[in-house]
Write a structure and sequence with these properties.
about 350 residues; 2 domains; 6-stranded parallel β-sheet; binds zinc ion
């Protein structure tokens, strides 16, 4: 089979490798589509380490072979792949919160080969945990790949009570900012505004016709001032930081209304994650601060429902599709802000 193999940081070669054979308890998937994500870019550049030569974790595939001892999975069934696999022995895993596994979770595309290949194996631990998420008959493979990133947004926003919120602000107009904004809308936020520093990006979102109520360039407009005017002085009910810029956290806090919610969705630079902050800005207005780290099964099923019901128009977000042969071109397209790309998909 063909696979995009990491030879060394920054050098990926599409080459022939053996089709993996599923062991007892494992399932072989034919990859129908696998989307590139920002984390993949960091791995491919060598900024983030993984244990395997084939990455890709936003996957939709069809069962091509089933190992012995697998129950309830049949040939030709279509699945999305849940990325995170916990130890399934610790208290957090017992609560089905494998994303917070106390022994550190493992993941498809990080500790097991991922989806930038014609075939991939769902390991026995993943099959047992229920990491094969059935795809509805009418859902395209392209839309199916969006279930994974959307599930991470569903998880990150689980504790935010959007119903009745009059204004939500999102920092970051990339796919993750967009998906967070769409979850807020789907869950009842009245108005959602996206802030980004790249006008090209904001123009792209405009041209895609997404249901946002403002696409604001935060180089040209001070976000605190803009939101104050937009909300008649009350502030936003929620701010999502979906860009790895730590200075956005104190700015987001200043944008919030009383009883407001701040979601720190993006990870911050590990080398320098510290940011000074007036904690009384959280204390007196009774603000709520949320973290976000990947997702678990309940988030996948909710994300699948958001897409299949049309409340999140997944296919609109897919701007580019490449074959596996053109993997490096796909990576360059996704990494180039001027390319007009939002979600880039590989169809092996
Ligand atoms: Zn990802
Ligand atoms: Zn665990």
């Amino acid at each position: 089979m063909k696979a995009a193999v990491i030879k060394e940081p920054g050098r990926i070669v599409v080459e022939e490798v053996a089709i993996p054979v599923p062991d007892a308890g494992e399932v072989l998937l034919k990859v129908d589509a696998c989307a590139l994500c920002g984390t993949d870019q960091r791995v491919l550049k060598g900024e983030k380490h993984v244990d395997v030569p084939i990455v890709g974790h936003e996957i939709a595939g069809t069962v091509a072979a089933v190992g012995t001892d697998v129950k309830g999975v049949e040939l030709d069934e279509r699945y999305a792949v849940q990325t995170v696999i916990g130890c399934n022995a610790c208290p957090m895993c017992a609560l089905e919160r494998q994303n917070l596994c106390e022994n550190g979770f493992k993941a498809i595309g990080y500790q097991w080969n991922g989806g930038f290949a014609e075939y991939m194996v769902m390991p026995v631990a993943g099959v047992r945990q229920g990491c094969l998420i059935p795809l509805p008959a009418g859902m395209s493979a392209e839309a199916g790949t969006l279930i994974e990133p959307l599930s991470c947004c569903v998880n990150g926003m689980r504790c935010l009570p959007f119903e009745g919120m009059h204004a939500v602000a999102v920092f970051g107009g990339g796919i993750i900012g967009v998906l967070n904004g769409l979850v807020a809308k789907a869950r009842g936020a009245e108005r959602v505004v996206i802030f980004d520093v790249a006008q090209d990006r904001l123009n792209l979102l405009e041209s895609l016709g997404l249901p946002f109520d403002g696409l604001i360039n935060s180089r040209d407009h001070d976000p605190v001032e803009w939101i104050t005017n937009f909300t008649g002085g009350r502030g936003a009910n929620a701010v999502v930081v979906a860009a790895s810029v730590k200075q956005l956290v104190p700015i987001g806090i200043q944008m919030l209304a009383r009883d407001g919610h701040l979601s720190i969705f993006a990870g911050m630079p590990k080398s320098d994650p510290v940011e000074p902050l007036d904690l009384n800005l959280i204390h007196y207005p009774e603000l709520h601060i949320h973290g976000a780290n990947s997702s678990v099964q309940r988030d996948y099923t909710e994300a699948r429902e958001l897409i299949s019901s049309g409340r999140v128009a997944a296919e609109k977000l897919v701007t580019h599709t490449f074959s596996l042969d053109d993997f490096n071109e796909a990576v360059a397209t996704q990494g180039n802000p001027a390319s007009g790309s939002l979600k880039v998909i590989i169809k092996p």
